[in-house]
Write a structure and sequence with these properties.
single chain; Rossmann fold; 23 helices; isomerase; globular; six-stranded mixed β-sheet; glycolysis
Amino acid sequence: MSSRSVLPAWQALQTSAEQVKNLHLKQMFASDPQRFNQFSVAIDGVLFDYSKQRLTQDVFTQLLNLAEQTDLRQWRDKMFAGEKINITEDRAVLHVALRQPAGTPLFLDGEDVNQGVHQELAKIKAFVARVRSGQWLGFDGQAIKNVVSIGVGGSNLGPQMATEALKTYADDTLNIHYVSNADGVQIHQVLAQLDPATTLFVVSSKTFTTSETMTNAKTALAWLNKATTAQGAVAKHFVAVSSNLAKTADFGIDSDNVFAMWDWVGGRFSMWSAIGLPIALYLGFEIFEELLAGAHEIDQHFLNADFQHNIPVIMALLSVWNTSFLGADAQAILPYDQTMHMLPAYLQQAEMESNGKSVTFAGDAVDYTTVPLIWGMTGINGQHAFYQYLHQGTTIVPADFIGSVTPSVDVGQHHQVLMSNFFAQTQALMDGVNEDSITADLMSKGVSEARINELVKHKVHQGNRPTTSILLDKIDARAVGRLIGLYEHKIFCQGILLAVCSFDQWGVELGKGLASNIEAQLANHDLTDEHDSSTNNLINYFKQKRA
Ligand SMILES: O=P(O)(O)OC[C@H]1O[C@](O)(CO)[C@@H](O)[C@@H]1O
């Protein structure tokens, strides 16, 4: 048995899961008028309602016991203290330090992390001011008009998601474009609209070795070099965000134009570092600071709230409950706000790259399901795509509904229409509708008995489908900071509860290595027999067709 399933709380939860499977949420609400009060938490700017999750007070107590028995509190404190809890890479995990106000020293290997963070923030602030004010000039003396951010995974998703979420706050100082795909079509489409003389590239890569990013950066460099042979053009049009100064220098980027990252910031938790530079360039440094402030508020909540009212702790406990005990293999993320449309993609990386693991800290195989498949899209569009499956499919998919009281722009009646759907969907998923109600409804409409008999079973909704509702007061930078902070700490807690190391990503390395070998094979015309017959034939078909 692996370390978690031997715990008393784990075993108690296994017994409870069998009982809860026979309970219906509708009855739980009917029998307890206090259910919402009991299973909701409100903090500054956020209402978190988990009363539509399939749990009882006993289950909640057992889940809290699980948090205690897995030493979650101690692990949290180790993370904030800079202990090397990324055990497989022997690194600290300190994205929380990136949003810690100045003057709160934290020493790591003899260096004050807080000072380093604020030096880098000051450098970002000064650079952003120069570019946005038009003082930073391109090779022919014109100001920058377009920023192209080149990066992938954690070096792309956070900034792009936040840019989309907050674009209604942008002025017309700069345009921003994101390029992440190694498919050259993407960068060619972006560059086709731009003038090299007024374009600034931000190449973001912690390692500065990621093949997709390097391929795109080289294409961008060739595009600039084609437009000008002016001395020093690269220094005027390329900046980098990286922890690998040797590689940025090899690329030809001036060391003054490199913004630092540290090995204690994981890629998927890095939008608060200089990886967020595109956000600050596009929206201004003050908005970036608001984002940091929102996340810092959540750090304080996570550190100080008792677990019973601690939102990220509860989010993680619910995920483990749904997945490891109630058998839900998927989790939907459903933002009811168009600006938040990239949230599902962002959380896919954050959660699945962190906790999509199957061995414990000690390297033993787990004997439980770790994290679910994360998927989703804007709720309203999802309603007309996959909600049929959520309501009547054979698989139960817990869903997070995320909406706002006030959208980022005044859209009049639209917001009521939108949010009425949010509330109605969570209600429908919870309540369902049974044969009796359907029959009564059809009879009241004068439908014949024969037709009712044909239809009734098709119209039944079982309900009892769990949802969590997260209502933000307003979509702004602080709120986005809070929301992402909540999910980040949820993922941390989930890792501890499941005993998996959340901060490495060995699972993406194997494919990367094979791809670089195959890339070399694709560069010549020789047919290959080095691989299995499927891979050989796919490669050879591709090469013959291209010959
Ligand atoms: O910033 P880098 O080093 O280019 O890495 C990009 C991404 O690639 C990964 O290593 C694997 O997908 C991510 O963890 C990371 O965010």
